[in-house]
Amino acid sequence: MLFLMTTSATPPVIAASTAHPVILVNAPQALVTPQVYDWPMPGHDPSHTSTMIGPGPYIGHKLNTKELAGPASYSAAAANGTIYVSGGGKTYALNSSTLKTLWSSPVGAASTAVASSGGLVYLGTSAGVVFALYGATGLTAWSLNLHSPVYSSPIVQNGEVFVAAFNSTLYAISAQTGKVNWKYITGGTIQSSPAANGTLVAIGSNDGTVNFVSEATGQQYWTLGNLGPVRSSVTFSSDIAYFGSNDSAVYAVNTATKTRLWHYTTGGPVVATPVVADGLVLVGSLDGNLYGLKSANGNPQWTLTTGAIDQQGAVAYASKINTQPTGIPEFYVPTMSGTLYAVEVDNGTAMWMYPLTGTNGGPAIVAYTKIYIGSGSGLVTELGSLRGATAAGTFTTSGIPDRVFQSTATVMLASNTAWAEFGVGGAMVNVYDPNGNHVLVNQTMTFSPGNKLYNFYYDYSFANAAPGRYRVVVWIEDGHSKMGSSNPRCCGWVFFRASFVVNGT
To answer: 149, 96 in Cβ contact below 8 A?
Structure first.
């Protein structure tokens, strides 16, 4: 089950120059969720694999939205049931189910994605300051002035934060103290973000190079040159590094042998970071196409015309509705014009599209079986396949929260889910009356695989029900959590909340 989270971390003494007012909101607490379903940093992990080894939405059903104080143009992070995101000079902690604000912190104009690790949240600003905030409160743990704008999003690995400033410098910073452990200077300004594979840290530079340095010491290992400016970030797959360049090409190099393996030339600059999945390199170009290139040789397996793409996509294992449970890897990627595409990885088929409000938003992240994505208009959108239903139609907390029924009615409380092949162990439904009393407790829902809309349901009678607004909570269990499975695609619960109104007779 999911439990309320309590945190007892003691805030440090904060220097006057870094103190800031934090707005704590009387909102639901963050939920403790299995770490395997977190998306803790841009690209999911230090290697930028951008892959959730678990379920993602197979339909673009809007669950909730949240309006921030300004553009949400960078990646969010998800940890412990909380979504961390920046927009309009503030950084927010949002409840992952409702998107209600837990706290907001005006640390300055964030100019990077956020990263979460060890109870801290990291980000850089256009004023050149890197902040570490307490994830539970938003208070500053430490800050470091790099004296140059920070457009490079941080990653966290082995107790260090790796981040670059525009002034050509890559930094390794102690994640807990903010102390600089080492720095490396490239030959040009930096808009790329670092990636790490446990041995090397890679960073692109606008001087047309990709630099590989020792993660432990910052000493130069290999500099690959004669490229166009590199705003794209590297994706590591073991010793193989993939990246794009403003010379319109996608590259694959072997860092162990310091050799180029292949390159593929698109029709425009490639500033998006590639993603590797099912033997393909998935990457968008400013030429308006999304490419599925064979990772072994760079030959195109498919091309999809989408519109210009400048963000890294995300891969998760969704399932097609109305079929036997079969994992279908899907690639979720937004265009610069504001359309989110869900693309079947193996053949490049657009499964669904969702229009976002505003252009030039951030990349999508996948967490807790849902997608979270920001837009240039400042709206954060939560999409998922989980939804609730009654005999009268669909209801969600963001759609029709107060569908009205009579106290003589019997309705079907139902849900669908992207869980599919990941092992549904069971589903339970809970109902709370207008006074908050638990009137239906953990009742098992019936599995109905042939249902075209919903694959779990429970018939609930309102006989003699008091009038007022009722809350529904549905829990879907990952069966692997009970099987002791070593399969990494596991463990925990997903849920949705909804509500309805009962009128008296």
So the answer is: no
Rounded to whole angstroms, how far apart are CA atoms 449 and 392? 20
Contact 335, 362 (CB under 8 A): no
Cβ count within 10 A of residue 369: 25
CATH of the domain at 248: 2.130.10.10
Q: Are 375 and 356 in contact (CB under 8 A)?
A: yes
Phi and psi torsions of 202, nearest 5°: -115, 140
SS3 9: coil
Angle ∠(311,317,320) on CA atoms, nearest 5: 110
Final residue before a domain boundary, out of 354, 384, 414: 384
Give the whole-angstrom CA distance, residue 322 versus residue 279: 27
Same domain, 40 and 154: yes
| Contact criterion met (CB below 8 Å) for 75 and 114 | yes
pTM, two decimal places: 0.81
CATH code assigned at 406: 2.60.40.1220
Same domain, 176 and 207: yes
Q: What is the pLDDT along the chain (505 residues), one digit of tens a residue?
A: 121 222 223 222 223 334 456 655 544 444 445 577 899 999 999 999 999 877 788 778 887 899 998 999 999 999 988 999 999 889 999 988 778 899 999 987 789 999 999 999 999 999 999 999 999 999 999 999 999 999 999 999 999 999 999 999 999 999 999 999 999 999 999 999 999 999 999 999 999 999 999 999 999 999 999 999 999 999 999 999 999 999 999 999 999 999 999 999 999 999 999 999 999 999 999 999 999 999 999 999 999 999 999 999 999 987 655 444 456 789 999 999 999 999 999 999 999 999 998 898 999 999 887 899 999 999 999 998 765 554 444 444 444 455 777 888 887 787 766 554 444 556 778 888 999 999 998 888 887 665 545 667 788 888 888 888 888 877 765 443 333 334 333 344 555 667 778 886 5
Angle, vertex CA 132, rays to CA 131 and CA 135, nearest 5: 130
Among candidate residues 367, 384, 401, the one where a domain is terminated: 384
If asked whether residues 347 and 488 sit together in one domain, one would say no
Cα-Cα-Cα-Cα dihedral of 454, 460, 466, 470, to 10°?
A: -30
**Rounded distance, CA 423 to CA 483, Å?**
9
